[in-house]
Amino acid sequence: MKWWPFRRTALKRAISYQDVWGAGADPAVLRGTGQERALRLGPVYAATRLLADSVASLPLKSFRTDGDDRLRAPTPPLFRRPAATGTRYDWLHRCMTSLTLRGNAYGLIVAWGPDGWPSQIEWLHPDDVHIQDNLAAVPVWYYKGRRLEDGQLFHIPAYTVPGQILGLSPIAYFATTTEAGLLANQFGRDWFANGSTPSAVLETDMVVDRDAATILKARFKEAAEGRDVVALGNGVKYRAISVPANESQFLETIKATANQIAAIYGVPPEKVGGETGGSLTYATVEQNSIDLLTWTLRPWLARLEDAFSWLRPPTEEARFNVDAMLRTDTLTRYQSYRISRAIGLHNIDELRRLEDEPPLPNGLGTDYTPLKSVARDESEK
């Protein structure tokens, strides 16, 4: 028998809007931590946004287990309106943002339903949550210095090591990578903003005073702007200046940083401004979508499904509908429907529901009998 620490008598606990992570102009969001600095780096923002948006966009359902069977259960309030502020999408997005940036998501359970199970959870800013002993068998949590009751904090770690409760923060462990990327961006900005190197020079062996140089530059600019031939005379030569190789390396540094961050988060490099080997065809683009779901998102989804299932009775489990990500073309979709109906996996009404169509009248679309069995029965008549 499992111990379910989150169930209790129906209750609703007050929490101010300013307590919620990311609400309004909370000073906690504006702190100059490594997390906020890292988000200023494009690849980090792109990688965490891709993961958070992808997970938050998937439908979250509840299923009831009956032996080896799994049946749809009514969607609990926690999966319909999980927080006082924002939508279910926002709620999942905050959770993933905390996990991908800090390696931990901390949820304060603020309401319990009539069945005794949590009905609302507010995600807390990681800086406001502390644990008394990271190696303890039973954790003791503090929120803004106040000790929380047992079963009041819902914790999801992202990357764990044996013997520890807290997950590892990718931003903290790869601070060198993000700092290098930020410095490269700063160098590029300063370079173009300050114009520290002229774009070209006009060279001559003759002595040119300030007034003559001003006239020479004015004549050159006037002709160049008019796209006319420039006649300078006196042996004056034009020489363009490019960015020196050692200083232009910041561009390569930015690309390398994007590839490293893509590897850290397990996302395709081209999604975060990096480069991938080989050329992409239509087939590989489609396969990349499947790979993104299988190798990148699936581990995150499995982690969240197991965690959210602890917030439901032992006979229920939470599951994401990953089919929502696999939007195929019409022909491929209809072919899969045909196979699904032929083997009795779905009935006609279920397939029509996927296309937002009403069920057939008089229960005509409720039959699950495989089509081969139907054809055989018809031939035997």
UniProtKB/TrEMBL annotation:
<dbReference type="Pfam" id="PF04860">
    <property type="entry name" value="Phage_portal"/>
</dbReference>
<dbReference type="InterPro" id="IPR006944">
    <property type="entry name" value="Phage/GTA_portal"/>
</dbReference>
<protein>
    <submittedName>
        <fullName>Phage portal protein</fullName>
    </submittedName>
</protein>
<feature type="region of interest" description="Disordered">
    <location>
        <begin position="355"/>
        <end position="381"/>
    </location>
</feature>
<dbReference type="InterPro" id="IPR006427">
    <property type="entry name" value="Portal_HK97"/>
</dbReference>
